[in-house]
Every structure is written in C-alpha cells, then in structure tokens.
C-alpha cells in the first residue's frame, strides 16, 4: 500500500526524523526504510510537512505491533484530524461511540474524539461538537511547516483547505503588504509572514484573534503580524477603535468568508493599493461557479474606483461543498492607472 513518506539522504536521516517526531508527524504504523540510497520516513499528514522536505508515495513494511482503529473495529472509519483531535461526522450515536473508543485505544497519537453536533453557523462560522473521548477541544495543528494552536469550540478551522492555503502562500513575496479580512487563527497570515510579508489579520471573533497572536509568537513572526479584532469594514475605513484605517494599503487581500464575501467587496476595493491581488472565495452552483463572484467584483470596482483594470488571473475549484455546489477561488488582479 502506498504511504506518504519523506524521502531524504541517509546522512540527513536523523535530523529529519527528529524534526518530524517533534511535530508528531511520523506514522508509526510503518517502518522507516532504506531503499536504493534513500531513507523513507512515513508521515501521518503530508500537508503538514515543511515544504523544504520531499514527500513521495512509497510502500514501507507495516509495523506489526501497531494497532489501528481499523484493527479494532474490523472496518476503516472515516475521520479528519486536527492536531491530536479526531473529528467524526457520524449520525449514528452508537457507531460514533464505537469509533471513538477504537481511535483512543489504538496506537495513533489521537487524544480527543469529537462528533459534529451542528453545522458551521453564525457570523463567527463556529461548529458545535459533542466530545466523545478526551477532555478538551483545544489542540495544536501543523500544516506546511507552520503550527496553529486553536480551540475547535471557539473558532473556525478546516484542514481541508491546507493545499489551497499553500497554493496562495507560495505566491507571496518578501516585503508585500497582505491583509486577511477574515483571518481566523491565521492559516493564511502565518505562512505569508513566514515568507517575509507584512501582514494584518482581522477577525470579529476575539478568540480567533487571541489564537492568531499566539500563533504569530509560536511561528516567530510576531514582528510582522498585526491582529485586529473588529468588523473588517470599520477597521479598513478607520472607524474602529481597535485599529486602522487601511485605505489603499494592501498588495494582497484574502477574502475567505464564502457565503457573504460579496458584502465586503467595497471594503476590499478601498483596501487595495495601486496593484493588488484579491483571493476571493465563494460557494456557487456547479453550473456557473465563477460568474456571480466575477460580476460582483467588477461591479464593486466600478462603483468605488473605476481607474482600476480588473483581470481574473485564476479560476479555481477548491472542493465540492454540497451536492451541485462548489467552493471556488478567484484570484483577481486590480491595477490602478494614475
Ligand atoms: C470561514 S472563516 C475563515 C477563517 C480563516 N481565514 C481560515 O481559513 O481558517 C471566516 C472568519 O471570518 C470572521 N468574520 C465574519 N464576519 C466578519 C467581519 N465582519 N469582520 C471580520 N471578521 C469576520 C469569522 O469570525 C471567521 O473567523
């Protein structure tokens, strides 16, 4: 069976193994193997591995002494991982309890099991969880070499967006001014700052902003990150006591509030500098996933400042959201003529 493995030269093996172990990323269900001059270290979350390391698919031998949830249950349960927390989406309470017991009894480094108890809801986009095993909803999640402390009971976070966030982060250049209008605990802001950007992250959720500040410290980018708790509209236009204004400030803007980002487009245009990239996330029907967002952006730009030229540089299907509905991203360049 193919398993994601970090492939390194044997000389770098011990340092790499230690680095991965410190991040709890080694998949102990498989052996570390040497093959054709390379060392293969199996990893649990390839998306959390530092981008400097190479992850490949390889077939290492299984470790016989490891017990997985599937060994205990006799079937492979479906769950997501955020740090040391396993997240279930299981409607049957008995089955959920059985899976939770197996996860905790297995040799996986998972301490807490939560089951979805509501949809993501409200302005803060937080979900309710039923705690099936373990005590807390707080954990530390690792993604592409960054670590994020967060409490799932208080903030929004989705590991499913890791690849998308990495795609955007790799576009960031040192010295840029980047503004995340709906920053959460910082999964865009922190990697942007690590690449040398000066960042502002804004969120209406004070718990998310507290974690964003903590995560800036954890990842050694505190000096480059300003975290502001308020409605982003007030922060940008300068009517917030928490910070701002940020008119004409940004080279890059992230708008990840898919159901209502359109309402904030006027603010995004006010925030944009002479040459700015907007990453606009939307959820739309599969028949026309990009049209509504594109039209809304063009309208907002014309209304606020028609000196901008608008170019859609990328139309990307991020993931399926619901039957016939897609979560998409538009990368839109605004360039203002003098
Ligand atoms: C979908 S979450 C995205 C968080 C983060 N960017 C991520 O990818 O994990 C949207 C965030 O926007 C915040 N939010 C909602 N309305 C807001 C507003 N008017 N001003 C600032 N933040 C807002 C919510 O509290 C929530 O944390």
Short description:
The protein has 338 residues and is an alpha/beta fold. It has helices spanning 13-22, 69-73, 93-105, 162-169, 189-194, 206-218, 232-237, 265-271, 291-304, and strands spanning 3-8, 33-35, 38-42, 55-58, 80-82, 85-88, 112-116, 129-133, 138-143, 146-151, 177-180, 198-203, 225-229, 250-255, 272-285, 308-322, 325-336.
Helix/strand layout:
Blueprint: E1 3-8, H1 13-22, E2 33-35, E3 38-42, E4 55-58, H2 69-73, E5 80-82, E6 85-88, H3 93-105, E7 112-116, E8 129-133, E9 138-143, E10 146-151, H4 162-169, E11 177-180, H5 189-194, E12 198-203, H6 206-218, E13 225-229, H7 232-237, E14 250-255, H8 265-271, E15 272-285, H9 291-304, E16 308-322, E17 325-336
Parallel strand pairs: 6-7, 11-12, 11-14, 12-13, 14-15
Antiparallel strand pairs: 1-3, 1-4, 2-3, 5-6, 7-8, 9-10, 15-17, 16-17
Helix pairs in contact: 8-9
The site of S-adenosylmethionine has 21 residues, from strand 12.
Mean pLDDT rating: 95
Strand order in space, largest sheet = 13-12-11-14-15-17-16
Radius of gyration: 21 Å
Ligands in the structure? Answer: S-adenosylmethionine
Classification by helices and strands: alpha/beta
Helix and strand run? EHEEEHEEHEEEEHEHEHEHEHEHEE
